[in-house]
Amino acid sequence: MTLIAAMAIWGLNVAVVKQLTHSFDTSMLAALRMVVALAVLSVILVWKRCVVFDISWKQVRTLFVAGVLMVYLNQLLFAEGLQRSTATNGALIMALSPLVSAVLAALMFRETLSLQRLLGVALGFVGVAAVVLSHPGAGLSLASTGDLMLVAGVVSFAAGGALVQRLARCMHPLTISWAIYLVGASMLVVQVVAGSPPLKLEVLFPGWWPWALILFSGVMATALSNLLWNRAIATIGVARTAVFLYWVPVFGVLFAAVLLDERLTVWHLAGFVAVMAGTFLGTRQPLASSSSNS
To answer: What 8-state DSSP symbol labels residue 159?
Structure first.
C-alpha cells in the first residue's frame, strides 16, 4: 500500500511539474525542487545517523556520475520536456522506466537478453512512438521534441540507477540518495546563478500556490517517495518493486485529465497499452527460467 501511495504521488507530480513550468524557468524549477529534496534528505540522514566519512575515490566518482545522470540531467530533461509536451505524454513515457532499466542492466552487467525481453523493448518503443506521432504534422514539432527529451530523461535516470545498484552493495541507500542529490542540486544551483540575470522577488516568489506545489514536489514526490522506494527494494527486492512503476502512468494520465483538462485520444490509449505490455514482457522472468526454477 505504501508503494502504491508513492506511485500515486509520482503520477500526480507529473501534473504538478507541468503546472509549475508556467510559473518558473525550467532550470530554476529543477533547482528549487532538488534543493528542497536535499534539505529533507539531510535532516533524515542526520536523524538516522547514516553519515559516512570512510569512502573511496572510486565511490566518490561513481556517486558524482550517478548524481549528474539521475538528478542534474534527469531533472532538466524532465522539466524541459514537460514544458514542450503534456503531462499525459510524460506519464506514458515514464512507463518505460523499468524496461529501459532492464535493458541497460543487461548491457552493463552482461545479462542475456531473451527474445521475450527484446519483444518488450520493441513494444515499449512502439508505444512511445504512437504518443510522439499523435501530434499534428507527425514530425519533430515542439511537442514531439518534448517527448524525446522525456525519453532521454528516462534513459539518463536508468543509467544512473545501474551505477547505484553497484554502490548499494557497500553503502546505505539513504547515504547514496543524499550524495547524488547533493551533486545534482549543487550543479542545478550553479547553472541558475551563472546563467540567469539578477533574480527579482517576483521571479523567485510568483505566489503562494506555486511554492506550495514546489514543497509538495520536493518533499513528498522527491525526497520521501524515493525513500519509500529504496526501503521497498531492501525489503522485497528490486524485481518485485519495479512492478509497481506500472502504476505511475495510470495515475499520471488520470491526474492530467482531471486536473489539467488534457484531452485523451485513441493514440494515447494505443500507446498506453503498448508501453504497459512491453514493460511487462521486458521486465518479467522468461517463461523457461520460471518453469525450471519451479
So the answer is: H
| Of 60, 61, 90, nearest in space to 74 by CA | 90
Model confidence at 135: pLDDT above 60: no
- Enter the DSSP assignment of 1: -
**What span, in angstroms and rounded, lies between the C-alpha atoms of 145 and 213?**
26
Q: What pLDDT digit, counting tens, does each position of 76-112 carry?
A: 898 888 888 877 777 777 777 777 777 777 777 666 6
- Cβ-proximal residues to 281 (8 Å cutoff; 6+ apart), any chain: 116, 117, 119, 120, 123
**What number is the average pLDDT over the span 153-179?**
83
Q: What is the pLDDT of residue 293?
A: 45
Q: Which of 279, 240, 282, 292 is nearest to 113 (CA)?
A: 282
Alpha-carbon span 241 to 230, nearest angstrom: 9
Stated pTM of the model: 0.75
Q: Output DSSP code: residue 140.
A: S
103 is written with which cell numbers? 535493458
Tens of pLDDT, residue by residue over 221-258, are: 888 887 787 777 666 655 556 667 767 777 777 777 77
| Of 78, 87, 125, 142, residue with least CA distance to 264 | 87
Amino acid in the structure at residue 37: A
Q: How far apart are CA 135 and CA 6, in angstroms?
A: 30
**Which residues neighbour 220 within 8 Å (Cβ) at sequence distance 6 or greater?**
9, 13
Comparing CA positions, the residue from 65, 79, 73 lying closest to residue 30 is: 79
Cα 244 to Cα 98: distance, rounded to the nearest angstrom: 9
